[in-house]
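User: Is it possible to get a 3D structure for a protein together with its bound compound? The compound here is iron/sulfur cluster. I've pasted both below.
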Amino acid sequence: MPESAARQPAVQKRSGRTVALVAMYPTPDPAMPEFISNHGVRMVEATLRASELDGLDVVVFDLHDAASDELTEALIDLNPDVVGFSCYLWSFPLFAEVAEQLYADDPSRFILFGGPSAQPSMLDQPPFHTTRNVIDALIVGEGELTFLELVTLQNRQPQDIATVRGIAAWDGQAWHQTKKRPLADLNELPSPYVMQLVPPGGLGVLQTYRGCPYTCSFCEWGTMESPKRVRSADHLALEFDAMDSLGVDGALLVDAGLNLNSKAFEQLDLAAQRTDFFRNRKLISEVYPAKIQDPHIRFLERIGNPLVGIGLQSFDNDVLANVERSFEESRFISNVQQLTEVARVAIEIIMGLPGDSPEQFRESYYRARSFPCALRVYHCCVLPSALMVRSPPEHALNYDPVSLKIRSCLGWSEDEVRRECEFLNAEAHGNTGQVGDYFWVFSAPKNPAIQPWRSTAA
Ligand code: SF4
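Assistant: Yes, that's possible. Here is the predicted structure of the complex:
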């Protein structure tokens, strides 16, 4: 173990409240080029600032790109007492390196990791074993109130942080998790848009509820609670007014789905009608195909530029059963037909799902291309709170421990995964598609080969 990352016994942690929050944007998505703010970190910032805690000083590092040495130097110059990293798949390796360098410089700083990749299972990947020794706590689940409680603590020794709900801490031998924190009431969390903390322009990030009623095992939301508390129309309308003053082009709805929480949808519809926010703006949202109803279609009709993603993952129910999901063909076809009449639609499938195979995947690919919709194909990733901890041993997952992309698994050899990547690259280059780090994007075919809703019914 390098000396820098060795855990030092009983280091006294600082009690000051100069806080650095660090987040980094992913590589711009060729299919969604608009600026989208680092919403998670802005939510934490809003909660901290609204608390008006004595002695609090918050600095946000809102990074587009960074080298570890430069970022470490900038943080050492600022000399914060608390450093919170917002960790996603793309930023985790960089932040792990910076955390180790900061600890080597001064182990008394209080180092926190939050965000979807801040999970014990991720730190247990061999490349990150040394990082476990330098992080004081992982904020597991939503971060606003947990972060505020941790910053409020006068003493930040292991026995003190063990009193805070929603954290995991490494003691040099094992992880210790405290009680789960229930999902917050979004009406009580301050909005970073209303507080004018978000840079202007681009797309606003809109959230009307948290959690998901489903448990798809490849998805990090599959372990969250079923959503109960939703944002009120009044709260949403205030946020729309604030987004309007920041000159956003529209909004990205980050809910599990537009149609997965009827109370949240009612409130969103009310706020949208009251403010007319979407009349000439874009709304990007996911919908769950089996649950489309007339009110959702009427809502989309009133949006200036609606873009809808349908997370199908595979057309094969046996494949979907392996990841705790299902699909009803006749309803899917008629719902896609309805949606394509009012919105631009993209079907989303996954390449490399355990229990799928190259042959079945190709069938899903060609069937998806027969719809008058764009297509997004994702390389299956073994996410820390999803497949990494939920896949049964027979799935035989073999994945890159840094990028988390699947290399082989039940139904797929390494060669087959590689060949399918080459196939998708070639299809993207030949069909005006685009290749991203983790996905391939194809525009809607001008002349779909078949009209699936007719051919299947025949
Ligand atoms: S894939 Fe969609 S429906 Fe399934 S758990 Fe994730 S958010 Fe919920």
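The domain at 3-177 is CATH 3.40.50.280 (Rossmann fold). Confidence is low (pLDDT under 50) at residues 453-458.
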